[in-house]
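Hi V.,

Quick status before I head out on leave. The structure for the redesign project is tokenized and pasted below; the design run finished overnight.
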């Protein structure tokens, strides 16, 4: 997860209809009910030292509750995989994790967010600092240790969000964990596409997170979501983190351009 891209436009006053307010209440109650059901089950699984499917199930319920209808294209690797994805909104988290059961590399500021930070820790989120370069080597070590586990990891190398119809330059720092990888593992680029409604739910500009969540919760209709699992590649065949990063970016940019009917990605 990343903080939204800072833009020049000022944040407009959020206006929500009566129907929108009703949808917010219904969806908030639905998420609360899902949490009440899933959380005790998660701790019960943990008590017996069993792998818990409940964080993934809860996040899938969050995505569905908000209107996401998720399709996949391509063959998804399920283990020994390092996913790389474009980034549009905080909503990417329940969509991707609910489908794949992955954990994420996220900014450390999110760890202190009420409720959200706690839920991230339950999902084994790896928190890193994007501002303190002195900690980079230690953070890479943490990611490499996480890779040794069996669950997949997803990174958003743009470092922030876009409107879903563009792509920002990928930052190679986190790919240092793949150069070389701590064990045999594949990098699988992934394109997240919300189709024509992408700009309606994108978290960009100076919009506060709470306003974006309210806007998404108040939205009427489905969110047609497609996850394209692109051809994976072996990071060991590439020279360094920059080469691995560039290859992942190239593949996601090509897939995004194809989804936009061949329009160039900027």
């Amino acid at each position: 997860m990343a903080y939204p891209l800072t833009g020049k436009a000022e944040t407009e006053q959020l206006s929500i209809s009566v129907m929108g307010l009703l949808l917010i209440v219904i969806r908030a109650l639905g998420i609360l009910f899902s949490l009440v059901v899933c959380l005790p089950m998660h701790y019960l699984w943990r008590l017996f030292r069993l792998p818990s499917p409940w964080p993934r199930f809860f996040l899938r319920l969050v995505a569905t509750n908000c209107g996401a209808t998720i399709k996949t294209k391509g063959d998804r690797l399920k283990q020994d995989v390092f996913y790389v994805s474009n980034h549009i909104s905080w909503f990417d988290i329940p969509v991707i994790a609910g489908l794949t059961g992955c954990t994420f590399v996220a900014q450390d500021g999110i760890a202190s967010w009420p409720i959200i930070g706690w839920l991230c820790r339950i999902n084994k989120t790896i928190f890193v600092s994007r501002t303190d370069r002195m900690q980079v080597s230690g953070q890479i070590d943490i990611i490499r240790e996480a890779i040794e586990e069996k669950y997949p990891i997803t990174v958003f190398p743009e470092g922030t969000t876009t409107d879903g119809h563009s792509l920002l330059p990928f930052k190679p720092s986190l790919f240092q964990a793949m150069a070389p990888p701590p064990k045999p593992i594949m990098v699988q680029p992934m394109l997240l596409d919300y189709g024509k409604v992408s700009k309606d739910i994108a978290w960009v500009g100076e919009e506060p997170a709470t306003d974006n969540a309210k806007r998404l919760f108040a939205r009427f209709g489905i969110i047609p979501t497609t996850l394209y699992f692109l051809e994976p590649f072996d990071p060991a065949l590439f020279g360094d983190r920059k080469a691995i990063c560039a290859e992942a970016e190239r593949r996601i940019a090509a897939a995004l351009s194809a989804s936009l009917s061949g329009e160039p990605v900027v």
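Above is the designed sequence. The radius of gyration is 18 Å.

G. will cover questions while I'm gone.

Best,
W.
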